[in-house]
Write a structure and sequence with these properties.
Elements lengths: L4 H15 L4 E2 L8 E4 L1 H17 L4 H12 L7 E3 L3 H31 L1 H4 L1 H13 L10 E2 L20 H17 L4 E6 L2 E7 L23 E9 L3 H9 L4 H4 L3 E11 L2 E8 L8 E11 L5 E7 L14 E2 L1 E12 L4 E11 L8
Parallel strand pairs: 10-12
Antiparallel strand pairs: 1-2, 2-3, 4-10, 5-6, 6-7, 7-14, 8-9, 9-10, 10-11, 11-13, 13-14
């Protein structure tokens, strides 16, 4: 099978880095499954990678991106889990794409920048360009980490069943799909009022992930519904806003349609399951849903709350009458600090199947 240049470059980057370890020791590494790369070996590996990429055909910006991605954050790749090479490749590939995009954008706009260099000074313009680029939103999981919540209850962890398997892998894929949905094109603005913008988009081509059997929402019908995205600015520090989403204490205050919201259990310190129900509207039965809620911090400080439905019945919670089960195919919240941390850019995305007579079946 013929591989694309970026794929070949990525595989070479990982392989050269691993194969160039001439002196490897497990001493001092955080896990016996990890290998520790000594500084001298790390530098030799990087030199080999640099030489290899300079010989590759392709755009100069891609070469620079590949080298920069490895050089700017070597500490992230000092410890490599031998069973997680695919994850390492994914992280490196994501970083290469991000740096490549920034370099490509800079190169494309550089001629215009030169035209005004005589009045403002080239150094100042370059500095300003790089400053703006550093404030671009981060929309991939490279360098991200699960955010452990203080409300975690170890005794309520779900230890068996499909949901307890591959928790990290499922969480990473879910977060990745949500960030990708935020970043794709094709959104149509519905309204803009009081500083809040709302967009809609056909959901037929939105990737929702491929999860193990017994994990995640049902797959049918997403093409018959619209995905909705909204964004606004909250005049509060990100930590204050984030607290509202860490527990169920405030849900009924900011979501007028919610009737109940209870914790079902935990999958790990950054992932919990909740059961919630909506209010009845006329003849339409109240909806209930069981949701995986995963909390994660991206490398630029953005907080992500990634959600999707899980196939738990939770009959013990359905004591308030008759409910119709709703399916949250994909849902997410992004909290990003702006204005030197004084304000928070709040974004949300939702793709759901309301079920019942409104179902896609």
């Amino acid at each position: 099978m013929k591989r694309s240049r970026p794929t070949v470059a990525l595989l070479c980057l990982v392989q050269v880095f691993l194969l160039s370890q001439q002196r490897v020791s497990a001493l001092g590494s955080p896990d016996p499954a990890c290998t520790f790369v000594e500084p001298q070996t790390h530098q030799r590996a990087f030199s080999n990678v640099r030489s290899m990429f300079l010989r590759l055909s392709g755009s100069i910006t891609h070469k620079l991106a590949a080298i920069s991605a490895f050089q700017l954050a070597p500490d992230q790749f000092r410890f490599v889990h031998l069973n997680h090479l695919d994850e390492a490749r994914s992280q490196i590939n994501s970083r290469i794409r991000h740096v490549h995009w920034q370099l490509k954008s800079f190169v494309e706009t550089f001629p215009d920048t030169l035209q005004t260099a005589h009045s403002q000074g080239i150094l100042g313009l370059v500095r300003e360009k790089l400053k703006k680029s550093s404030h671009l939103p981060c929309l991939d999981i490279a360098g991200s980490r699960p955010d452990h919540l203080p409300s975690f209850e170890a005794h309520r962890c779900i230890r068996s069943g499909p949901l307890a398997q591959q928790v990290d892998k499922v969480n990473s894929e879910l977060t990745s799909k949500i960030l990708k949905a935020f970043s794709i094109s094709g959104w149509v603005q519905v309204t803009k009022k009081d500083g809040i913008e709302v967009w809609k988009r056909d959901a037929s081509d939105i990737e929702t992930g491929s999860f193990p059997q017994g994990v995640g929402p049902k797959k049918s019908g997403r093409g018959k519904f619209l995905c909705v995205r909204a964004q606004g600015i909250i005049d509060a520090n990100i930590n204050e806003v984030y607290k509202l989403f860490q527990t169920n204490d405030y849900v009924l205050e900011y979501n007028s349609m919610c009737q109940e919201c209870l914790d079902v259990g935990w999958l790990d310190p950054s992932t919990k399951l909740t059961w919630a129900s909506s209010k009845r509207i006329g003849p339409i039965l109240p909806r209930d849903f069981v949701t995986r809620c995963h909390y994660r911090r991206l490398r630029d400080g953005t907080v992500v709350l990634a959600t999707m439905s899980e196939p738990l019945l939770c009959e013990e919670f359905r004591q308030g009458g008759e409910y119709c089960r709703m399916d949250v195919t994909l849902g997410g919240y992004l909290l990003r600090p702006i204005d030197n941390g004084r304000k928070t850019e709040f974004s949300m995305l939702s793709l759901a199947n309301p079920g019942g007579v409104l179902d896609s079946q």
